[in-house]
Structure formats: C-alpha cells, structure tokens
Amino acid sequence: MDDKINAALEALFIDEDKYGQYVLGFRNSDGVLYRKINVDGLNAFVGANEGMPKHGFTNEVKDMSKTVQGCDAIFSYVGK
Fold first, then answer.
1. pLDDT in tens, 41-79
2. Exposure check for the chain: N or C terminus, fewer CB within 10 A?
3. pTM of the predicted model, to two decimals?
4. What is the DSSP letter of 5?
5. Cα(23)–Cα(21) distance, rounded to whole angstroms?
6. For residues 49 and 39, what is the distance between their CA atoms, to the nearest angstrom?
7. Is residue 60 within 8 Å of 39, Cβ to Cβ?
8. 3 state SS of 40
9. Helices 2-11 & 42-51, crossing angle to 10 degrees?
10. Cα 72 to Cα 61: distance, rounded to the nearest angstrom
C-alpha cells in the first residue's frame, strides 16, 4: 500500500511536511487508518483531493471544512 501512496504523491509533486497544516490520512485494505502525513499549503491539499482519484484513491471526507479522525482528507485505494 505504501508503494501506491508514495507513487501517487510523487506523481502529484506533493511533499510531506511534518509541520504542515493539512493532514492526509490513508486507510489500508482492512479499513484501518494506518498512516497520516502533513502537507503544507492549500495547493498541496487541493492537489491531493483532485489528483489522488486519478491514481486509484477515493476520499471519504466529502466536506472539506471538517475533519474526520483528525484528518482533513482520508484516502482509500479502490484501484484504477
């Protein structure tokens, strides 16, 4: 799973920033939120929301003004 996540983030030019204001979460195939990364800036956050679906991920957080389990977005891999 990490390979898919890392490849998608790299393709989208989204870098992890441990002090970033937006938290992206990732669920594994068992539905467990197992990884969180911080990204800095609205461009990175919007880029993830728009780009991750092109790499087979879906975001379960539909309201971008709310957090779920401490994340601004939670992605699950559903395949391409």
1. 999 999 999 999 999 999 999 998 899 999 999 999 999
2. C
3. 0.93
4. H
5. 7
6. 12
7. no
8. coil
9. 120
10. 7
What are the structure tokens assigned to 46, written together?
């919007």
Closest CA to 21 of 58, 62, 73, 56: 73
* Secondary structure E strands in 1-80: 22-27, 33-39, 57-59, 73-77
Give 3: exposed, middle or buried? Use CB within 10 Å, 0-12, 13-18, 19+.
exposed
Tokens standing for residue 80: 């391409």
For tokens 């929301």, what's the residue?
A: 49
From residue 58, give the alpha-carbon distance in Å to each of 18, 19, 62: 23, 24, 10
Q: CA-to-CA distance for 79 and 77, rounded, in angstroms?
A: 6
Buried b (16+ CB within 10 A) or exposed e, 43-77: ebbebbbebbeebebebebeeeeeeeeebbbbbbb
Q: What's the start-to-end Cα distance of the chain, in Å?
A: 14
Q: Which residue has the tokens 């390979």?
A: 3
